[in-house]
Amino acid sequence: MTRNSRQSSSCFHVVLALCGIGLPICPSAAQNSITVDKTRLEWRLDAGEMSYVFGVNEHSALQSLYWGTRLSADAELPKAHIAPDRASFDLSATNTPLEYAGWGEGLPVEPALKVDSPDGNRTLILNYSSSTVKDGVLEVVLKDATEPVAVHLFYQPFAQGVLARWSRIENTGQQPLRIEQAASATWNLPRGSGYAWSWLTGQWGAEWQLHTAPIVSGAQVIESRRGSTSHQANPWFAVGRQQETTETAGPVWFGELGWSGSWRMTVEDSALEQVRITAGYNPFDFSYTLKAGESLETPRFYAGFTSHGEGEASRILHRFQREAILPGRPDPRPRPIIYNSWEATGFDVTEQGQIALADKAAKLGVERFVIDDGWFGQRKSDNAGLGDWYVNTTKFPHGLKPVIDHVRSLGMDFGIWVEPEMVNPDSDLYRKHPDWVLNFPNRQRTEARQQLVLNLAREDVRAFVFDFLDKLVSENDIAFLKWDYNRNWTEPGWDLQSAGSGTANDAKEVYVRYVQNLYSILAELRRKHPKLEIESCSGGGGRVDLGILRYTDEVWPSDNTSALDRLVLQNGFTHAYTPEAMVAWVTDVPDYLNTSTVPLKFRFLVAMQGALGIGGNLSKWTPEMLEEGARLTSFYKTVRSTIQTGRLYWLTGADQGSPSQVEYVAQDGSQAVLFGYQPLQHYGLEYPQVALQGLDPNAQYRVRPLDAAKYMGDPVVSGSVLMGLGLRLDLRGVSDSSAVLLERIDPPK
Ligand code: GLA
Prior knowledge:
Number of strands: 36
CATH class of the largest domain: Mainly Beta
Bound molecules: alpha-D-galactopyranose
Mean pLDDT: 94
Helix content: 10-25%
């Protein structure tokens, strides 16, 4: 691209083009590109409908200039200019929106980087040094004025409307350098006030609770200190303007961190109306030493912008995850309908029992049969056996082969549960290797669910885990692993000192090295077994993030399978993650958590919001239930692609107990599906009729209701009417639900 208005040598890279029907960014903005202006020392990243610009100011510091709606090709921004001191208490470093601030120059807000130099200096002043573009990634190098520290900042724009940022911190000197705090990036919002942000918190059985609050002066922090992503907070944010942003309109700045270990995200308003969002490794209990020439890379921090409201922000993320993150990228294969044994048979899995369930599951239309916990070692309960990954021959006297063969003969593929990173003290593995667990020397250790965490940062533990999984998958016809992780870290010790291989500070690198080894095992397994698919589970949704999703095809969002709660949880989940990766099972009633009882159809229609699964005890289902189940799985198959790969619209929120409606529209616009739920009717009021979204107002749609009696309307309806008025569903009483399939009628050619 040539900027006519100024003398500059610049370059332009189109990495990918994107144009989807109905996408507001189509067609002109539907590209990603990197523009380097070497004269002005300014860089512009375009991703979908977003532009992001930063430049070098007169102090040689890198300064954010713009993050918002896509700029015109010839747009020129005011040059980077350091802000003056506001007072002796707020110096210019506080006022200037720095791109990646080292702690130094009087910076009292959250720094991106803090290091401890051997000469006793603890501050950094990062000055611009050079930049290059390679393979669609911009790299900008910053160097400290006197210390041997180089910081490499990376920017990768994606056509789906997301920019990935991360850093690599390099020790360019001869002495070791200790990193105390390292973020991936800081995102500066346009200076101003009146922002509100949304974030997700939770707990076991109640993940994905959505909160929204004004951004006020000071720092608001969400984090995990638990060694993994956590149920308690998820590294996702969305910021809007209080007066402007809604589900369907207004600006939204959003992002998520791709890291499955301890992390921290700080949303900070410095009181000078400059909001910064910084995220990366959690600095709590953190230390990472770089020897001469060594580097530490930080996780990817992905972010985007839309001017079309919160719904569009989530749709951008869904599409981005499908096309650029998930292992099957750019076009993951559809999630199969799973049967899982956990809620049906618990630890009591046997050859005969599982074969009987498989027979029924196949008749329902299930495509993948998964044996959950209990098949290995001396595993009769959660007291024993974790770590002993041999088949329990009391339960499976002939090994797994007869069950797998039977499952395959029924036309399904086979999956199995593993929890590779854990050990019960009552196991052969622990008796043999008590030193393999995370713990501090001579200290009491805390058990959770009677289990301990293996220290995956150790190379011998990494080798053990990879080898047993490789053997399991090589020796059996296994298409899928449900990879579980059922506790948090409590005493994250790694005894390097008595092994003579490191200091107490080196042992803190466990926060990084553990997760790096986890990713490397997953990557190596997938390389060696290209057809293998994996689910990330951690007692439900304790390990869901864009780091693990690069290696796992789907996630288990919650152990809570109560359909009424799931409506709320799945709404929260889909703000940040694609429904394609969201596994949901139809289980039995009364459910084990709330003892609530809702009809089978309601449970199916809730589970259909993502990747449908079934987890009820089919041997207890009546013939009528099995028949209804088969009807509903076959309906799901007709709309699966639209649900998993289409555009999702929450037409109403999903507050506990309130009526809700969710709609999915196929990427090519040819099909849409609407799900309606009426948990509890009030005051005899009719079920609300809500305008649909994302359809073609000029097209006609054939309406195919799942239940003819529940649809009150004509068989063919115009898109403009559907988007003006919506559809009338006759939902009544307690736990009523229905679905409607819409097919666009294309004019004859
Ligand atoms: C975790 C998972 C459940 C099940 C059990 C088995 O709680 O989230 O789905 O697999 O472990 O022990």
